[in-house]
Design brief:
Elements: H1 29-40, E1 47-52, H2 56-66, E2 74-79, H3 85-100, E3 105-108, E4 113-114, H4 118-133, E5 137-142, E6 153-160, E7 163-170, H5 175-184, E8 187-197, H6 198-208, H7 210-224, E9 235-237, H8 240-244, H9 251-256, E10 262-266, E11 272-273, H10 277-281, E12 292-294, E13 297-300, E14 306-309, E15 314-317, E16 322-326, E17 331-335, H11 342-351, E18 362-365, E19 368-375, E20 379-386, E21 394-396, E22 400-408, E23 411-415, E24 418-422, E25 427-430, E26 436-439, E27 446-454, E28 463-466
Parallel strand pairs: 1-2, 2-9, 5-10, 12-14, 13-15, 14-16
Antiparallel strand pairs: 3-8, 4-11, 5-8, 6-7, 6-8, 7-10, 16-17, 18-19, 19-20, 20-27, 21-28, 22-25, 22-27, 23-24, 23-26
Helix pairs in contact: 1-2, 3-6, 3-7, 6-7
C-alpha cells in the first residue's frame, strides 16, 4: 500500500496517496482491499500491510473505521524508503515464515485495485490457493477488454487444474502488438496479485535472485533482532541502512519471470486498476451527454467531460472530452485522451518546488490534522484538530511565535514551565524559542486556530525534545 499515484494528481499526493483517496461510490481503495482480505482469509490469519512508515497512522485509522473487529489481527511492516515490490514481498514472506511457518500461504494484494464481486474473487483465490499448495507461484491474469499499452501481459501455457502454466511474461507492448494479443486470446493483463507458499517463494528467490535475497535476509535479521516478539507488537519498521542496500526491483523481474513453477489463474471477477482519471471516470455514472460529474459541478452544452469537484463549483460550457479535477489549492484540466500524461504535470511542478505535489492544504499527523487557512509572507494560519488521547510533541521554534485559540473542547497546554487548561474561546501566546506542547486528555476532538508570526513558517522550523510518535 503506497505509491504516489501521480496520475491522479491533484487528489492523490505523496502525503495522502491513492489508496486513501475517496472513491466515487464511497470508501477507499485500501479499505476495499482490506475487506477482500477479510473475505478470503482464515479467522486467525494475520493481516499484514506493507506500507511506508509515514502512512502507519493513516492506515491504522482507516482500518479501525472499516473493520474494527479485525484490529487484533493487524500487522504493519513499515518501509523507511521505497524499494519496489520485491523487497516488500520477500521481507513479508520471511516475517510470515518466522512467525507462522514456511507452509503458510500468502495472498498478495496491491491496494490500488477495485474489485466489486467478492464472491467470484473468493472462488478464484481458492483456485490459486490449490495451485500454491502444489508449490506453484501463482499470479492472477485479467482477460483484456481492449488493446491496452499501459499494462504488462502474461502469455498462458499448458492447462492446469484451475489455471495455466505461464509461458512467459511480456513487457508493456505497442498498440499493434497489444491488439494482436487481444485477438489471439492467449494473453492476460498482469494484475500484480499473487498467491504462493512462503517457503516456495523464498526458495525460488534464493535461486532466481541471490543478489536481492542476500540483502533482504540481512535487512530482516538487522530489523527483527531489535523488534519485540509480543503479540501486541503491531508495527515492525525495517532497519533503514540495510533496507536501502536492497536493490530496488519488482517481484516480477526478480522472481516470477525467472522461476520454474509459475502459474496463472484467469480472473473471473471484475477488475479496475485505478491508475488514471479515466479509470476513476469509469466508476461514475454518465448523463445523456456522456458527462461524468462528481461534487458541485455543472455542464452546459458539453459532451464527454469528467468534472470532479472537492471544494469549489466547476462550470463547463460548450466543451468536449475534458477532464477537470478541482481541489482547494489546485485545478487539473486535461483532454481525456491524455490521462496518462498527468504524471508530467507532477514532474514539472516538482522541478519548480511546488508544494502541491506532496501535500494538500489539510495535512494528517499521528495526533490529528491541520488545515492551512492562510499562508502569507508575514503570517500563517492553521486550523488544528487533535484527536482524543493524543499529544503534540514538546517543541520550540526559532523563527516564529504562535497564538493558540481553542474553538472546541478543552486542551492541556504547556508554555515554558507553566502548564494549564485552555478552554473554548480562550487563547495563549507562545514566544519564539519557548518550549510548548498541547494535549487532548478528553474523549472528543479538540479544534483550535493557530496563528504564526515571524519570517519563516516551514515545517522544518520545529525542534522536538520529546515525541510520542518517534519524530525526535
Amino acid at each position: 500500500s503506497g505509491g504516489a499515484g501521480t496520475r491522479l494528481w491533484p487528489v492523490s499526493r505523496k502525503s495522502l496517496p491513492k489508496p486513501f483517496m475517496p472513491l466515487p461510490a464511497g470508501g477507499t481503495l485500501l479499505g476495499g482491499t482490506l475487506a477482500r482480505a477479510l473475505r478470503v482469509s482464515g479467522s486467525d490469519a494475520p493481516l499484514v500491510t506493507v506500507t511506508a512508515a509515514t502512512y502507519a497512522h493513516l492506515t491504522l485509522d482507516l482500518y479501525r473505521r472499516v473493520a474494527p473487529e479485525a484490529d487484533a489481527r493487524q500487522q504493519l511492516l513499515l518501509e523507511p524508503s521505497s524499494r519496489n515490490t520485491a523487497p516488500a514481498i520477500l521481507l513479508a514472506a520471511l516475517w510470515i515464515a518466522a512467525r507462522r511457518g514456511g507452509h503458510s500461504t500468502l495472498l498478495v494484494l496491491p491496494a490500488d485495485h477495485l474489485i466489486r464481486n467478492e464472491d467470484v474473487f473468493a472462488s478464484d483465490v481458492a483456485k490459486a490457493q490449490a495451485l500454491a499448495a502444489e508449490g506453484h507461484l501463482v499470479t492472477f491474469g485479467i482477460p483484456p477488454t481492449r488493446a491496452e499499452t499501459g499494462y504488462g501481459y502474461i502469455e498462458r501455457g499448458d492447462a492446469l487444474e484451475g489455471g495455466f502454466k505461464v509461458a512467459r511474461f511480456v513487457e508493456k507492448p505497442d498498440a499493434s502488438t497489444a491488439a494482436a494479443y487481444v485477438a489471439g486470446g492467449r494473453h492476460l493483463w498482469n494484475a500484480g496479485m499473487f498467491c504462493f507458499r512462503a517457503d516456495a517463494l523464498i526458495e525460488a528467490a534464493d535461486l532466481a535472485c541471490p543478489e536481492v535475497m542476500g540483502p533482504v535476509r540481512a535487512c530482516f535479521l538487522a530489523s527483527d533482532a531489535r523488534q519485540p516478539r509480543r503479540d501486541d507488537a503491531r508495527a515492525l519498521t525495517w532497519d533503514a541502512a540495510s533496507f536501502d542496500a536492497i536493490p530496488g526491483i519488482s517481484i516480477d523481474y526478480a522472481v516470477m519471470e525467472r522461476a520454474d513453477r509459475v502459474a496463472v489463474v484467469p480472473a473471473s471477477f471484475d477488475w479496475n486498476d485505478i491508475g488514471s482519471w479515466t479509470a476513476v471516470g469509469e466508476e461514475m455514472p454518465s448523463d445523456a451527454d456522456g458527462n461524468r460529474i462528481r461534487g458541485d459541478a455543472i455542464a452546459i452544452d458539453s459532451h464527454g467531460c469528467q468534472l470532479h469537484s472537492t471544494a469549489r463549483t466547476i462550470a463547463a460550457v460548450g466543451v468536449c472530452d475534458l477532464t477537470v479535477v478541482e481541489t482547494a489549492d489546485a485545478v487539473l484540466i486535461a483532454h481525456r485522451d491524455r490521462a496518462q500524461d498527468v504524471k508530467k504535470v507532477v514532474d514539472a511542478l516538482r522541478a519548480r518546488g511546488n508544494a502541491s505535489v506532496d501535500t494538500h492544504l489539510t495535512v494528517h499527523r499521528p495526533w490529528g490534522s491541520y488545515t492551512v487557512l492562510e499562508d502569507g509572507a508575514d503570517c500563517k494560519v492553521k486550523r488544528l484538530t487533535v484527536k482524543p488521547g493524543q499529544v503534540l510533541s514538546l517543541q520550540l521554534h526559532h523563527r516564529r511565535s504562535e497564538h493558540w485559540t481553542v474553538v472546541t473542547g478543552t486542551a492541556r497546554v504547556r508554555v515554558g514551565d507553566e502548564e494549564f487548561d485552555l478552554e473554548r474561546n480562550h487563547s495563549t501566546y507562545i514566544p519564539v524559542e519557548t518550549l510548548h506542547r498541547l494535549e487532548n486528555r478528553t474523549d472528543t476532538d479538540i479544534h483550535l486556530i493557530e496563528v504564526q508570526c515571524g519570517d519563516y513558517f516551514g515545517e522544518d522550523d520545529i525542534e522536538r525534545l520529546e515525541d510520542r510518535y518517534g519524530r525526535v
